[in-house]
Design brief:
alpha+beta, 12-stranded antiparallel beta sheet, 4-stranded parallel beta sheet
């Protein structure tokens, strides 16, 4: 495909974005948020060095929320169901529970603890427990435990009529969701649950069209990845002896491998087709602790953000990975497109694996639709109301 044709594809997103923005709720039209469509990211400044010349400064920190009403009223929380993954993060969840339990007891809040015993157990618990007895559900674990739990919640026939607010307590390895929310301290999150302030965050519904019926539906609260990121994650699983460095090892190996990947994207009705190195859809800003893949994402705006990286020579891809690790500066590169959307479809010439919330599962072709504020969560009211103070501000 010629460069001119690719530019026309990108430009086609702009009128779609304008139409979507007109249909969006008025609360989105605030000065630190630009709405859906192609995001024109502008570096906040330039860093100069004798070895590398000039590089863009990393993106500014921004609030993960669009807007908070300072008149919000807290809910009364007297009884909590706790789902704990005691094995997550090498026992981090179990250690967190010791302090979280103390917060609940000091607040004179009743709780019932359910510990997961195997993969998929959190889904079973969330789907089958009698939630009418509780005012809140606390999840202690990593991104995988959160994904399992919400999958069970959304399978309940009474979910849309009686959704239970959820507290997301860090207890895993990456904790991407809680990092974006700046809620990585289990004790502080437990206090937020007791305080009772609730708001909805977006969820993505995924249909993998060629999977068996029982494996066709998935939900995402965090990330859907295709391409190099998925291949790197598979490699990392075989390099556990490297600890957290295994993800860097996996990425470096796959970059050197230089695999060609062709895909077709349809984003809010606009079609894109090209050779891509990776496609990363995010609801929140982070993947893991350090990677700000979509640094301008909002968790409650009714859209998800996708970073589309065109195929380039190995040296350029390695440079892109370096900019990603440097605070999310990859979004300023010309081969990277940053787009907000409500619905997308991804297909490839051959059936290829996806990574959904940190787990390699599902496959192309797939469709993803955003469900606005579908999951009620407990949040830090002070941080959300005073977002400029805690998160900074951006025009993107």
């Amino acid at each position: 495909m010629s460069e001119d044709a690719k530019e026309e594809q990108k430009k086609a997103l702009v009128p779609e974005a304008a139409a979507a923005e007109q249909a969006a709720p008025k609360e989105l039209a605030i000065d630190d948020y630009s709405g859906p469509g192609t995001v024109e990211a502008v570096p906040p400044g330039v860093i100069s060095g004798c070895c590398w010349g000039s590089k863009p400064e990393p993106p500014l920190s921004v609030s993960p929320f669009v807007k908070t009403d300072p008149e919000d009223k807290p809910r009364k929380v007297k009884n909590i169901l706790v789902i704990l993954n005691p094995f997550g993060g090498n026992g981090r969840g179990a250690r967190a529970w010791v302090n979280v339990k103390r917060v609940f007891e000091e607040a004179k809040v009743d709780y019932e603890l359910k510990q997961t015993q195997h993969a998929g157990h959190a889904t079973e618990l969330a789907r089958t427990e009698d939630l009418s007895k509780y005012d809140a559900l606390a999840i202690i674990g990593g991104d995988g435990t959160i994904n399992e739990t919400i999958t069970g919640l959304f399978a309940r026939p009474d979910w849309e009529e009686k959704p239970i607010p959820v507290g997301l307590i860090s207890g895993g390895t990456g904790n991407s969701v809680t990092v974006t929310l700046d809620e990585t301290d289990p004790v502080e999150t437990a206090k937020q649950i007791v305080a009772g302030y609730v708001r909805g965050i977006d969820i993505g519904k995924i249909i993998c069209e060629e999977e068996p019926e029982e494996n066709r539906l998935h939900w995402t609260i965090n990330i859907v990845a295709w391409g190099l990121g998925v291949d790197a994650n598979e490699t990392a699983e075989n390099c556990r002896c490297c600890g957290r460095m295994r993800y860097d090892v996996g990425a470096l190996w796959q970059i050197c491998r230089g695999a060609q990947r062709h895909a077709q994207l349809e984003i809010d009705g606009v079609k894109l087709e090209n050779d891509f190195s990776t496609i990363m859809v995010q609801n929140n800003q982070h993947s893991g602790v350090d990677l700000r893949i979509t640094p301008y994402a909002k968790v409650d705006d009714g859209f998800m953000d996708v970073v589309v990286c065109e195929q380039r020579p190995r040296g350029r891809i390695l440079g892109m990975f370096d900019e990603l690790k440097r605070g999310g500066s990859h979004v300023f590169l010309p081969e990277v497109d940053y787009i907000r959307f409500k619905k997308m479809r991804l297909s490839s010439e051959t059936k290829t694996l996806l990574n959904i919330d940190g787990e390699n599962k599902g496959s192309t072709p797939m469709t993803l639709e955003v469900f606005k504020q579908y999951l009620p969560i407990f949040y830090n009211f002070e941080k959300a109301v005073n977002a400029d103070k805690y998160f900074g501000k951006s025009t993107v």
